[in-house]
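Supplementary Note 3. Input sequence used for the single-chain structure prediction.
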Amino acid sequence: MNNKRANLDMKQYGMFIALIVIYLIFAILTGGKNLTPMNINNLVMQNGYVVILAIGMLLCVLTGNVDLGVGSVVALCGATAGIMMMDYKMNMWVAIFAALAIGLLVGMFAGFFIAYLSIPPFVVTLATMLMGRGLTYTLLQAQTKGPLPTNYNFIGAGFLPTYKIFFGDGILDLVSIAVAIIASAALIWSELKSIKTKKKYNFALAPTWQTILKLGIMLFIIWFFFYKLARYNGLPFVLLIMVILIGIYAFITTKTVAGRQIYALGGNRKAANLSGIDTNKVFFWVYTNMGVLAAIAGIVLSARNGSSTPKAGDGFEMDAIASCYIGGAAVAGGSGTILGAVVGAFVMGILNNGMSLFGWSTDIQKIVKGAVLLGAVTVDVLSKRKKN
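The predicted structure, written as C-alpha cells, is reproduced below.
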C-alpha cells in the first residue's frame, strides 16, 4: 500500500493561478465585460496567432535563443496569400500553399545561417525581420489587399458546425457542450491514470483534497470556457487549429527523440554534441519549423482581418517571446513546456483584452506587459536559485 504523501508543486500550477487571478481582476475592473460570451470568443480569435507563434517560439527558446523575425514573416506570408487571391485570382488552397512555402523558405534561410554558418540567431533573425518587412511593403506597395474571399476568411473568423437550441434567454450550442463533456472525461481519466501509475511504482501521492481541488478548478475553467462559447456562435475554427498544433507539439517535445534533443541542446550544447546529437541539424529544423508556424499565423491573421496589410504582425515577435518566458521557459534555455507557452500566451491575451476594455492607453499597456514579463522571469530565476 502506498502511504507516501507530497503536496502539489504549486510552481507547476503557478501560471494557471496567475491566469485566473488576472482574469478576475479585470472582471472586477471592467464590471464583468470580459466575462461575456462575445468577449470569450474574441479572446480566442484575437490570440490564435499568438498561441501559434508561441508554440514555435518555445522550441527556439529551448535552444537558448529567440526568433525576432516572426512578425515580419507573418506579414509576408499573409501578403503572399492576399496577392495571389486578389491580383492573380488563384484558388484559395494554392494561395495557402504558396504562403506556407514562403514561410518554409524563410525558416530554412534562417536555419542555414544559424546552423551551418554559425551566425548568432539574434543577428540572423534581426536580418529576416528587416528583410521580411521590406519585402512585404514592396509586394503590397504599401497598400492593403482586400477584401479577401469569404471561404478564406473562414479560417480566421469562421465557426465549426453547431447544433443550437433555445436555452434561457438565448441559445446554447450542444456541440460545444459535448466537447466540454469529452474534455472533462479526458481530464479525469488522465488524473486517475496518473494516480494508478504512481501507486504502481510507489511514488508519493498528493493528498486527496488537493487532487480534488485541482480537478475542481480545472473542470470549472473547462466548463466556463465552453459554456460561454456555446452561448455565442459555438467553437471558432481557429480553436481547432490551435488544439491540433498544441497536441502535435506537446507530443513532439515530450514523447520523441527530436524533442529530447532540443532540451539537451538548450541545457548544454557541448554535452549534446559529445552524446552524438547533431546540434546543427536540430538548430536547422527548429528555425525551419518556426518559419512554417509563422506562415500559419500569417494565414490565420489575414483571414480574420479579411485583408493583407503591410503592418500586419508588427510586434508579434515580442508577444510570442514574452508568452514563452511568462509560461515558465528558462532564460538560458533547456526548460519550458508547450502548455506553459500556451498559458503564457493567454496571460498576454487577457492582459491586452482587459486593459483595452478598461480603457487604458497603449503606452500604459506596454508598461504593464513589460512589468509582468520582468516579474515572471524574476520569480522564476530567484526560485531556481533557492533550490540550488
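The CA atoms of residues 107 and 291 lie 4 Å apart. The chain has a mean pLDDT of 91.
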